[in-house]
Write a structure and sequence with these properties.
Length: 319
């Protein structure tokens, strides 16, 4: 059967799909295919191995007449109209678990980079602006004993919280639909309302999927409720945050800094105000970007397709 892979990924995925007898076509360009190109590529595909940057809306899906399965090369699948897929018996898969550690590690690195001014001080050092040891310069916030607030305590949120608690003795609060007694037992994490999460956290870290409930949830009123001098870290989806509101609270000094692996759009235009704030660390959506994770993601995404096309249950099936 015909399988489209919408970007170049590690060869293991193609090897597995070809070994299972499928014919693979890979979009080899550096930039994602346009919607028109996606349509041309996918109109007769039986399976698609898609990227989070490919918007598979109902319009496009309706043109893919042979489609039986889409396997997203990501844990998030907000780029796919899953309701349409469900009503048209198109299976959808994703790549959970295999990127948990990598994304949690990246969130840790981003937290440290943001709270200790690593990026702006690195740039000043390299550009020759650093003249002498500065008793009052580059001051950041110590993590020991501070409160870490997790919005969306799923696999990645918990993995990050555990690392931060073990490494830095942080107190962990979390907001989720339901409390989980395991979190309490393992790291002493306390389940709180969103209100309490905002008012009590020194660092608020977002780990929730993008849904209609979470889109733009972090707006001006929510940021105003955050503790003065606190930080925002986002490694989930840029759309959770109202970026204009974020710029405004950062400029006011109400928030002390932000570390963003994700923005809207991606990449963020160079003239966007977030690009020019020295207390904002911006990185290009690299949560899962390790050799180990990307290889395991390629395998899992391919296996989802192989199983679905055989009519078997997929190792990571969303619907
Ligand atoms: C995901 O898998 O959803 C991540 O955002 C990719 O790094």
């Amino acid at each position: 059967m015909k399988v489209i892979i919408t970007r170049k990924i590690l060869p293991i995925a193609i090897e597995m799909l070809e070994a299972a007898g499928h014919q693979c076509l890979v979009w080899e360009e550096q930039l994602p295919p346009s919607k028109e190109k996606l349509e041309q590529l996918c109109h007769d595909a039986d399976g698609i191995l898609s990227m989070l940057s490919d918007p598979f809306d109902s319009d496009l899906l309706a043109k893919c007449k042979n489609l039986k399965v889409i396997s997203n090369y990501a844990v998030g699948f907000n780029n796919i109209d899953t309701a349409y897929c469900k009503s048209h018996q198109i299976k959808v898969g994703n790549t959970p678990d295999v990127l948990t550690e990598a994304t949690a590690e990246l969130a840790m690195a981003l937290t440290l980079a943001t709270t200790r001014n690593i990026v702006c001080s690195h740039l000043e050092t390299k550009q020759g602006h650093w003249k002498t040891w500065e008793p009052m310069g580059y001051l950041g916030m110590s993590l020991e004993g501070k409160t870490l607030g997790i919005f969306g305590m799923g696999r990645i949120g918990f993995c990050y919280a555990k690392k931060m608690q073990r490494a830095f003795g942080m107190n962990v609060l979390y907001t989720n639909r339901k409390p989980n007694p395991e979190y309490e037992k393992e790291i002493g994490a306390k389940w709180v309302s969103l209100e309490e999460l905002l008012t009590s956290s020194d660092i608020l870290s977002l780990h929730s999927p993008l849904t209609e409930e979470t889109r733009n949830l972090f707006d001006h009123p929510k940021f105003q409720k955050m503790k003065k001098g606190s930080y925002l870290i986002n490694t989930s989806r840029g759309e959770l945050v109202d970026q204009d509101a974020l710029v405004s609270v950062l400029k006011q000094g109400h928030l002390r800094g932000a570390g963003l692996d994700v923005t809207t759009p991606e990449p963020l235009p160079l003239n966007h105000e977030l690009q020019n704030l020295s207390n904002v660390v911006l990185i290009p959506h690299i949560g899962s970007a390790t050799d180990e994770s990307r290889e395991a993601m390629a395998q899992l995404a391919a296996q989802n397709i192989i199983n679905a096309l055989k009519g078997e249950s997929m190792p990571a099936q969303v619907i």
